[in-house]
Structure formats: structure tokens, C-alpha cells
Amino acid sequence: MTFGVPFGTPSFFFFPYNHQAMRASQFFLPTLREAPTEAETASHRLLLRAGFIKRVSAGVYSYLPLGLRAIDKVRQIVREEANKAGSVELLMPTLVPFELLEETGRDTVEVLYKTTDRTGRPFALGFTHEEVITDIVRSFIHSYRDMPITLYQIQTKFRDEPRPRAGLMRGKEFIMYDAYSFDIDEQACETAYEAQKQAYIRMFQRMGLETLICDAEAGDIGGGMNQEFMVISEAGEDKVLLDEKTGYAANAERCDIGGDYELAMPASSPKAELVETPNKRTVEEVTEFLNLKPEHLVKTLLLKAGDKNIAALIRGDHELNPLKLARRLGVEKVDLMSAEQVMAITGADVGFAGPIGLEDTIIIADNAIKPMKDFVVGANRDDMHYMHVCHTRDFSVDMFDDIRLAQDGDPSRSGGRLKEIKGIEVGHIFQLGTKYSAAMGATFTTPEGDIQPIVMGCYGLGIGRTLQAIVEVSHDENGIILPVSVAPFEVVLFTANAEDDAQKQKAESIYKDLIEEGIEVLWDDREERAGVKFKDADLIGYPLRVVCGRAMHEGKIEIKWRHKSESELIDLENASQTIAKMIKEEKQRLNA
Ligand code: ATP
Ligand code: MG
């Protein structure tokens, strides 16, 4: 083992700045007994207490030495697996000239940090780099022979998040792996997408992190098929729906709902009847007033899809999913109408819209309305609703479709039930199509000599959020429990009694041996009581703890895996080799 020491020089004495190993007395271990009050989740509290990160301002953190080492580990795993997948690393600037974003219309993205240089020229701080990479590619890639190619970087991103949260989970500044694939057609793009997906699976596996791959919405990035890697956790901000039987999982924003809804025939139900509902607007107010359950009301949401008027009908106890509605309509987005627009169309205030007698409006009803035949709707008159309404009889529906937000218990498309869980989005992969290449003129010549836009994919993984997700799902009341692949040090070593010379000598020799073995070891040689060192070791979460103590009299030494509850004694003889072997085996297990 050389650790970059030239010619295999055996001793670290010639190389005091061995990055692999450290003495705590020369290191920076600012652990805290109490978490600062700002801490919002277990992982946030622990990263602060263990001295991995320090808050600078809301959503802005310093990585302290332990945190940086762990971040570097995550970064390196990501880099290695990206390289193995055939992606090529580059580095783009943080300062992005505004005119590049203007080419794709992303100059108005909400989270953008804008700045100007001394001449007044506008720049954005990079929040993701589709425009910059497409600009590179349009300069250099001109032929089908230049593809496929996937380029990536690992770099700090800036987003002016409205609600920065929980440390590295949602920062205004955060480190991201972002990759971009360039292909001649959709099929080749799918191949590149699949290669990245497999690389992601290996990355998270090497970090010992279980993830769920979910169908997702594209958001500001745009494009088509895309999936998220979710870590299941109550601390997550995303709602995920999972059909445990089939494994189908999707972000609630994206989740399809199945189920066979039979179209009701308006048989013998009573006629629609106009009723007064003075100042009752919300589903709760109206149904309470009429002494009905929310599922007996159909709400009418008025929206604009471009210049078209849309009335979306949703059962009272359900929510519209506007992204789904837009997808069903084949438009980029739908916007709720303003109060003035609602008044212009219905002649009534917001809260009293209904489908009966609506003109110049496309009526789209959620599938759950299909079997309903006696319900309440707004009457398009202030303070009035209709009761005993039937679709098809009292108004016609232009289209029934799945347009509502999926929730716990809904039927899944494959026949099972959807279960709602919470997730932390650690990665997101997209097939972009030609959105950016077409807008920016990144084209290539086909073998037939035609000019076509390049087909792109993009792939993001939050380095800091991933580290924090690991902590969120892997800790106990004493602290962090890290896998060897991510821990800032693989082994922590100390003596039970700092005054005991024999223990000290042994610790020193194990320290040197472990360095020789290529093990990343922290020797906690601080002038502190053993109790403090035990506590810090548990808090920081080194995978293996080695203590030179009284057992030495019996020719033994105590070791303890952080993830196990019991310590064990190993032979003092060849202890370093035994420890090194254990660490290497554990690493191999994760790499397998
Ligand atoms: P979110 O929905 O959580 O805001 P996003 O969908 O906007 O994230 P992407 O553009 O898909 O994020 O970014 C790729 C990855 O970068 C995400 O999967 C996540 O791991 C990470 N990431 C995004 N925003 C942040 C942030 N503010 N702080 C830390 N990591 C982030
Ligand atoms: Mg995302």
C-alpha cells in the first residue's frame, strides 16, 4: 500500500500529511452535545452535532473536515460508477451568461440567482446546466459519428429555494452530479438512459442506500420519460405511491390511477334542483350546509390551457392533479383562472362554478365521476348550487379521464392498491428529447445527409442530499451509523486509559499498521476521558471502533461494529491484519 507515497515508501513518518489517517489531536472534531435549535430532522441534528456541517445562513452550509471526507466518498463513488458507465467528466462554469438561458426560455425560472458583471451584463448562477452543455455540444458535435456521448460534472449548484430545509436536504447551494447524454435518436437515448439508471443503482448500492425508482414529473427541466430515485423516509418531502404487489411506484405528482369505473345511467334519480347556499363556497361549507358527505359533491375547477377554457370536474373528497390534466390535454401547463375570468365565464363569484349551462368550455371529468348519478354542483349563480345532478342528463362531459391526485388506497393501474409513503428524492433521470437541442440549434448530420436535432437525456444526483439521506435512514439514539464506503474514517482507534503506556504504545503500533494496510483510521489520541471518546465515536458513526484496554492482559483487543450492539474481542496478535481484513470484506460486500 502506498497512499501516493512515492516508491512504496513504507512509513508515514516521511509523509506527515497522509490523507487516509489522522490523529484526532491534529484534526478538527467539533462535536456538540446539544443540537442547535435550527435542526429539523434527525439527520440534520446529527450532522450538526457530529461536526460534519456548520450553518452559515439559511440553506447555506460549510462542510467541516468530517463532512467533507464523507462528501468526497459519495462524490468518488458517483464518479467511479459514472466512468464505468462510459460517461466522461468535464467541468462547466458556475456563472452562466443570461443569454444562454434566454435561448430556451429558462431565464424566468423562479429559483434562479441573477447577477450582473461590472459592465451590467447579466449572469445566472448555474442551477442545472442543460444550456451550457448544449452550447458546448452544438460547437463540437456535428455528425452522427460523434455520438453516443454522455458528459458529466460534479459541481456546486445554486437555487434560490423558497423553503430551504434540514441542512443538506434542501440547500440554496448544493453539490450535484449532473450528466447529459447526446444521441442520434430516441432509441439510442433510451440506451443511454438505461446505462445511467444502472449506474445510479450501483452508486446507491455501494453506499448501502436502498432506493425506490419512481415514475416522476419533469418539472422545469421538461421533456418526456423520467424517473426519480427515492429513499423511503418520513423525513422526505415527496409523496410516493407504491403498489406493493407489482412494485409500481410513482411520485404522487405523476401517479396513474386505475380501477374500472362504470358509467352511471341517469335512471330514476330526482330532477336537478336549485338550492340556496348563502356564502357557502368550499366543499366542506356546502356539504355541511346540505348535510351531505363531500363525496356527494362534484367540484368544478376552471382553468386555462392556452386560450382554451377547461372545466375540470373532481369528486369533493379528491384533488385535481393539474400536471396530469395538462398531460392528458397534451399541453405544457394549465393555469387556474383568476376571479375575473371565472366571473366572465360563469357570471358568478369563485365557489359557485358548475358544469350546467357552461359555454365555450371543455368539460373534463375525473374517472371517479363516471359512476355518480345524484350529486351537487355549483349553479353558476352567486350563493346557489344544484342538487340531484346527473351527468349526461343535465350536462355533457367531453371527456372522462384520470386527472386527480393519487392518494393512499386508490386502485393502481395494474389492479392492486396504492400505498402512500414519503420519500427523499436523491436522484432524477430524464429523457429530454429535443427540447434543448431544437431550441439551441444543436443539430447533426445523419448518414443520409439530413440535419436533425440531437436527442438528449439528463441525469441529476444530489451529493449532499444523498449523504444526509443515508444518515436519515441509518442512525440510532447515540448517533450516525455509516457504511464503510461513506464514513469519513473506516476505523476509530483509542485507548481505554490515556495514562496507560502499554495501551498507548499498542494503539500507536496498530495505527501505523492500519495505515500500512491502507485503512482509513482516526486515532483518537486527544487528552479526553474515554467516555468522551466512546460518545464521539458513536455520534460520528465510524463503522468500526477499536479500543486498546484491559483485555490486552489476556492477549485480546476489543472491537465493535457501529451497526451491531455487542463488542467482540479479537487476538492482539495480528490484530491490525484482522481489522484490515474485516474492513476490506465489508467494503467488498457493498461493492458486490
Ligand atoms: P426537488 O423536487 O427536491 O426540489 P428537483 O426535482 O428540483 O428537486 P432536480 O433538478 O431533479 O431537483 O435535481 C437533481 C437532484 O439534485 C435531486 O434529485 C436532488 O438529489 C438534488 N437537489 C435538488 N435540489 C436540491 C437542493 N435544493 N438541495 C440539495 N439537493 C438538491
Ligand atoms: Mg427532480
Description of the structure:
The structure is a single chain. This protein is α+β, with helices and mostly antiparallel strands. The strands form 8 sheets. Strands 4, 8, 9, 10, 11, 12, 13, 22 and 25 form a 9-stranded mixed beta sheet that branches. Strands 1-29-28-30-31-32 form a 6-stranded mixed beta sheet, sandwiched between helices. β23 (443-445) and β24 form a beta hairpin. α1 (42-49) crosses α10, α2 (65-84) packs across α10 and α11 crosses α13. The radius of gyration is 30 Å and the shape is globular. The model is unreliable at 1-18 (pLDDT under 50). Residues 219, 228, 425, 428 line the site of magnesium ion.
Supply the key terms.
binds magnesium ion; 32 strands; 26% helix; 592 residues
Helix content: 25-40%
Total beta strand runs: 32
Distance between the termini: 22 Å
Unreliable sequence segments: 1-18
Which descriptor suits the 3D outline? Answer: globular
Largest sheet: 9 strands, mixed
Radius of gyration: 30 Å
Ligands (ions, cofactors included): adenosine-5'-triphosphate, magnesium ion
What is this structure, in a nutshell?
With 592 residues, this protein is of the alpha+beta class. It is built from 13 helices and 32 strands.
Compile the SSE list and pairings.
Layout: E1 22-23, H1 42-49, E2 53-57, E3 60-63, H2 65-84, E4 88-89, E5 95-97, H3 98-104, E6 113-116, E7 122-125, H4 130-140, E8 149-158, E9 173-183, H5 186-206, E10 212-215, E11 226-232, E12 238-242, E13 249-251, E14 273-276, H6 283-289, E15 298-305, E16 308-315, H7 322-329, E17 335-336, H8 339-346, E18 362-366, E19 375-378, E20 384-389, E21 399-401, E22 419-433, H9 435-440, E23 443-445, E24 451-453, E25 455-462, H10 463-473, E26 475-476, E27 479-480, E28 491-495, H11 501-516, E29 521-523, H12 530-540, E30 544-548, E31 556-561, E32 568-571, H13 575-591
Parallel strand pairs: 1-29, 4-8, 16-18, 18-21, 28-29, 28-30
Antiparallel strand pairs: 2-3, 5-7, 6-7, 8-9, 9-25, 10-11, 11-22, 12-13, 12-22, 14-20, 15-16, 15-17, 19-20, 22-25, 23-24, 26-27, 30-31, 31-32
The structure holds adenosine-5'-triphosphate and magnesium ion.
